[in-house]
Design brief:
single chain, alpha+beta, 3 domains, 37% helix
C-alpha cells in the first residue's frame, strides 16, 4: 500500500541526507560544498513532503479504526448476484481463528494435494467469497497473512500505490465517500468534496471472480505443513499481484478491472487536457519535458503523482538526457535516480518501472500508443476482501487435475482528472 511505499521512500531519503551531510562535512572545496548544500535542502524538502503524506495516512487509519469499532457490519450481510453469493462483511473472530488452526491447515493441505474433502464443521464456517457448489475450501488465515506480506515484495509495485477498498459490490458510491481529503476543523467550514466532475461523480465496483491455476507437481510432494503453506502463498501471491499490476493499467473492463489506458473517461472525455503527445526527440529533451508536459499538468495534480514507464524508455531516453554540449543532464536537471527495486525519481516525482508487456516502451511503440503515465495512484481503487478459496476438479479432456485459487476483485479510477497519459507522436530524433 501507499503507506509502505512512503515509509520505504523515507528510509531512502534519510540515508541520502546522511550521506550528503558526511560529504559536506568532509569537503574542502567551496563550490562542492555549495552544491552539496543545495542538494541537502532539496532532500529535506522531500522528507517534509513525505512526512506530511504519512501523517495524513496515519490520521485516516486512526479515524477508520475508530469508526469500525463503533459500527459493526451484520454478520449475515449478503449480496445475491446471479449464481454468485458474496459478502465483504467481517466474519466473527472465532471463525477466523478456526481457519488458522492446525487442524484446518492440515485439512486444507490434504484437500489441495489429494482432494480429501474438507470436514463439514469447517465448510459451514468458512468465509464466503462465492457460495456455490464448486468452491470447496477457503485458504487458511495463516496463508492469507503470507500473501498480504508478499504484497510488499518486488511484485505488486503498481498495486501498492493504489487505494485498497473493501466496499459492497454492485452499489454506486460517491467518489468523495471513497477518496477523503483531510480538513482541520479549526479552519472553519467543512472540507470540499472531490473535484470529481459530472462524468465521475459516482463509481460502482462489481463482484468479479479472478483465478490462478497451480500445477499439481509443484505442491504434491511437499510433506511439511509450513513449507507447503509458504510455497502455496508465494505461488498465489505472485500470480495475483502480477495480474493486479497489469489490470490497473491494461484491464479491459469486461469481466475484469478497468485499466487506466482503457477507461474512456480519461482517454476520450479528458483527452484534450489529460492526454499529452510527445515525440522521441521531445522525450530526449529536458526543456521539452518541462514545457510540453509538466507545464500542462495543473499543480494540484502534481503533488502526489508518480511516473510509470517501461524500463527501456528510462534507460534509452530519460537516462541519456544531455545539453547542447553533450553533457549529461539526467541527474543535475531531471533528478533521475533509480534503485534495484525499480523505484526512483524523475523531475522531482517518484517513478516506477514496469515491464514493456504492461506499458509500451517508446522505441517499439506505434505512433498513437501510450508510453507513459503520470498520476496519483491513490485515486485508483482496488476493491477486494482478499479472501481466497481453492477448488479442484479433473479435466476429462486433458486427464489433468486442476487446482486453482479464486477471489473477488474489481478496480477502476476514482478520479480520472488526476491521471495524465503520454502518447507517442511522430517526430524525427535530433541528431
Amino acid at each position: 500500500m501507499r503507506k509502505k511505499y512512503l515509509e520505504k521512500r523515507m528510509k531512502r531519503l534519510q540515508a541520502k541526507k546522511e550521506s550528503l551531510k558526511q560529504r559536506c562535512d568532509a569537503s574542502t572545496d567551496a563550490a562542492e560544498v555549495r552544491e552539496l548544500t543545495r542538494s541537502l535542502e532539496e532532500v529535506n524538502e522531500e522528507i517534509e513532503d513525505t512526512q506530511e503524506e504519512l501523517d495524513v495516512i496515519e490520521s485516516e487509519e486512526a479515524a477508520k479504526a475508530e469508526a469500525e469499532e463503533r459500527a459493526a457490519v451484520p454478520q449475515n450481510a449478503q449480496l445475491v448476484n446471479g449464481n454468485v453469493v458474496g459478502t465483504f462483511a467481517e466474519e466473527k473472530r472465532e471463525s477466523k481463528d478456526m481457519l488458522a488452526s492446525i487442524e484446518y491447515r492440515e485439512a486444507f493441505m490434504a484437500f489441495v494435494q489429494r482432494g480429501t474433502k474438507i470436514p463439514e464443521k469447517f465448510e459451514q464456517r468458512s468465509p464466503a467469497v462465492a457460495n456455490t457448489t464448486k468452491y470447496s475450501a477457503a485458504i487458511p488465515v495463516t496463508i492469507m497473512d503470507e500473501i498480504i506480506k508478499d504484497i510488499s515484495d518486488e511484485c505488486g509495485n503498481i498495486y501498492n500505490l493504489c487505494r485498497q477498498l473493501n466496499v459492497q459490490g454492485g452499489v454506486k458510491f460517491s467518489v468523495a465517500d471513497l477518496s477523503v481529503e483531510w480538513h482541520w476543523l479549526a479552519d472553519g467550514g467543512v472540507s470540499d468534496t472531490q473535484d470529481a466532475g459530472t462524468a465521475n461523480a459516482y463509481v460502482s465496483f462489481e463482484y468479479i471472480l479472478g483465478e490462478a491455476r497451480i500445477a499439481e507437481t509443484l505442491l504434491l510432494n511437499i510433506t511439511k505443513l509450513s513449507v507447503f503453506e509458504t510455497e502455496f502463498a508465494q505461488l498465489l501471491a505472485e500470480a495475483f499481484l502480477k495480474a493486479m499490476d497489469y489490470g490497473v493499467i491494461n484491464g479491459s473492463g469486461s469481466n475484469q478491472m478497468t485499466g487506466i489506458l482503457n477507461d474512456t473517461r480519461l482517454t476520450t472525455d479528458l483527452a484534450s487536457t489529460n492526454v499529452i503527445e510527445m515525440s522521441v526527440d521531445e522525450m530526449d529533451s529536458w526543456v521539452d519535458w518541462k514545457q510540453k508536459f509538466i507545464a500542462k499538468v495543473p499543480r494540484k495534480y502534481r503533488k502526489n503523482a508518480t511516473f510509470v514507464f517501461a524500463g527501456e524508455t528510462v534507460d534509452a531516453h530519460l537516462a541519456t538526457l544531455r545539453d547542447k554540449n553533450d553533457r549529461p543532464l539526467y541527474i543535475e536537471a531531471a533528478g533521475l535516480t533509480l534503485d534495484d527495486s525499480n523505484e526512483g525519481r524523475f523531475l522531482g516525482k517518484p517513478v516506477q518501472i514496469v515491464d514493456s508487456s504492461i506499458l509500451d516502451n517508446i522505441d517499439d511503440a506505434e505512433v498513437g500508443d501510450y508510453v507513459g503515465i503520470f498520476g496519483d495512484f491513490s485515486q485508483y481503487g482496488i476493491n477486494s476482501n482478499k479472501e481466497f478459496v481453492v477448488d479442484k476438479w479433473e479435466d476429462k479432456n486433458t486427464n489433468k487435475v486442476i487446482t486453482r485459487g479464486l477471489t473477488v476483485v474489481d478496480g477502476k479510477m476514482l478520479l480520472p482528472k488526476a491521471f495524465f497519459l503520454i502518447k507517442k507522436k511522430a517526430g524525427t530524433p535530433t541528431i
